[in-house]
Structure formats: C-alpha cells, structure tokens
Amino acid sequence: MKKSVLGRGLGALLSDSNVVEENQTLPQASINEIDVNAIEVNPYQPRTDFDEEALQELTESIKTQGIIQPITVRKLEEGRYQLISGERRLQASKRAGLKTIPAYIRTANDQQMLEMALIENIQRENLNPIEIALSYQRLITECNLKQEELGERVSKNRVTVTNYLRLLKLPPIIQAALRDKQISMGHARAIINVENPDTQIAILKKILAEDLSVRAVENLVRDLASPKNKQKKTAENSLSYEIKQLQQKLSSHFGTKIAIKANNKNQGEIKIPFHSTEDLNRILELLQL
C-alpha cells in the first residue's frame, strides 16, 4: 500500500537504503519514538513556504489524535537524527507540545537522502509549481537523472516534467507571481510561449490588472504571434531605431538628455529638460528664441 502511494522510485530507494556492504541487509525498519529535539531539519527540503493556517490545523489535529503517519529520519550518530520527510508533522508536533514523535529510521547517503526527500515531498506535499519545478531540476542535476528516469520516479510523463522545468525559464517576477498564486499554471504555460521577457512581464501586468482568464491569455499570446502583429512590431522597431538616433543627435546638440515619444502614426512629443534659469537661457539661445 505504501509503495503505491509513494511511487516506484521512492519505494526502491527506501529498499536500497537498507542495503549495506557485502549485501548484508538490515532488519525491516520499525517505528521508534524519538525525542523531537534530537532531530535536525532536512537540508534537502524542497518546500520553502509552509502555510501557517494549515500548520495550525495540523497542530490541533495532533493534539487530539496524535501522529497518524510517522516521519522518516536517518541516524547521524548516537542520539542524533536528520529528517528525511515529514517536516510539517515535526513542526506541528513541537507546537502541540509533544516530547517524542514516531519515526522510521533509515540508512541513506547524501544523494539518497536528497532523492528521497525530493520525491517524498513532490508526491505527498502540496508544493507550488515553482517548488515542484525546482525539485525536478535538482533531481536531474544533483541526482544525475534523465527526464525519462525522473518521470518514472515521480510517476509523471515526460511532457508534464518538461512543462514544469520550462517554468524556470520565466523572469523571476513571473515565477514569484506563480509561487504566490497570483497566476495559475495555465497562465504561466501560456506566457512561456512568448520569447521576449519584457513582453512576458507586460502580459503578467495585464493579467493582474484585468484579471484575465487562462483562455484570454492564450488568445492574447496567439494574437501576438500572428503575422499581422509581427509586421506591426517590425514597423515599430524601425521607428524606434530612427527615434533613438534623433534623440542622440538632439541630446548632443543641446547638451542635455532629450526624450522623444512617438507612435506609429508619427505623432508624439519632444521634451527638453533644463536645470536652472541659466540652463534655460542657454537652450533658448540654441533655439534662437
């Protein structure tokens, strides 16, 4: 039953963690009561944000019913342990005033520790999409897994894994919006199809300002990719280049930074800043006024 919940990857890891030199196997892991203060936090914990309300609800549940699912730890030395999985349960138990907590004690090296922690949390915890993507990336880079192997470990197909990994290519501000649930995974997947980071950020701002649905964002991205829109962008870029050249010439002529704004109908404005009465008179003389 446990294996079906955790997936083949984690089940295999937990089995492998009981194998020592010369193929000698340790006894099946039993549940032990461990001092909560003897357990170090997991340095490989992929979750970085714990919901305070959910944590308090778990605390109240533990006060009433106790710990239903033991945590998993590895032994560091006599009387000292390191958490593999179950940080929310450990935190809630401390809040509930428990002195000890039921735990499975496993044998694992650092790489096994990392892989077990990541897979355990991906499959058991309600991680946000960015935390999942970062966990996938760590499994690939730090555990030397290929995407196909990763998919098997977490019981996901390669397309799903790829979609999560692509999120990490988005600008930080968009990743933060996804992490903070300001936008959904669907919004982010639509934005990814836009190549220009500035345009991606502009779309994010439009989503937040107008509360756009995923379908609306998909249509917006589709319109941006249309041939007609590409032609418009090309014309705007050409105009922008000419305006920049003119700005440089005017700035050099007047000895101050000139700002020019123009639309594709050749309408706009020129701003000439001055910093004192003397500076204004100097500019007026150049204008022969």
From TrEMBL:
<comment type="similarity">
    <text>Belongs to the ParB family.</text>
</comment>
<dbReference type="InterPro" id="IPR003115">
    <property type="entry name" value="ParB_N"/>
</dbReference>
<dbReference type="Pfam" id="PF23552">
    <property type="entry name" value="ParB_C"/>
</dbReference>
<dbReference type="InterPro" id="IPR041468">
    <property type="entry name" value="HTH_ParB/Spo0J"/>
</dbReference>
<keyword id="KW-0159">Chromosome partition</keyword>
<feature type="domain" description="ParB-like N-terminal">
    <location>
        <begin position="32"/>
        <end position="122"/>
    </location>
</feature>
<dbReference type="InterPro" id="IPR050336">
    <property type="entry name" value="Chromosome_partition/occlusion"/>
</dbReference>
<dbReference type="GO" id="GO:0005694">
    <property type="term" value="C:chromosome"/>
</dbReference>
<dbReference type="Pfam" id="PF02195">
    <property type="entry name" value="ParB_N"/>
</dbReference>
<dbReference type="InterPro" id="IPR057240">
    <property type="entry name" value="ParB_dimer_C"/>
</dbReference>
<protein>
    <submittedName>
        <fullName>ParB/RepB/Spo0J family partition protein</fullName>
    </submittedName>
</protein>
<dbReference type="GO" id="GO:0007059">
    <property type="term" value="P:chromosome segregation"/>
</dbReference>
<dbReference type="GO" id="GO:0045881">
    <property type="term" value="P:positive regulation of sporulation resulting in formation of a cellular spore"/>
</dbReference>
<dbReference type="Pfam" id="PF17762">
    <property type="entry name" value="HTH_ParB"/>
</dbReference>
<keyword id="KW-0238">DNA-binding</keyword>
<dbReference type="InterPro" id="IPR004437">
    <property type="entry name" value="ParB/RepB/Spo0J"/>
</dbReference>
<dbReference type="InterPro" id="IPR036086">
    <property type="entry name" value="ParB/Sulfiredoxin_sf"/>
</dbReference>
<dbReference type="GO" id="GO:0003677">
    <property type="term" value="F:DNA binding"/>
</dbReference>
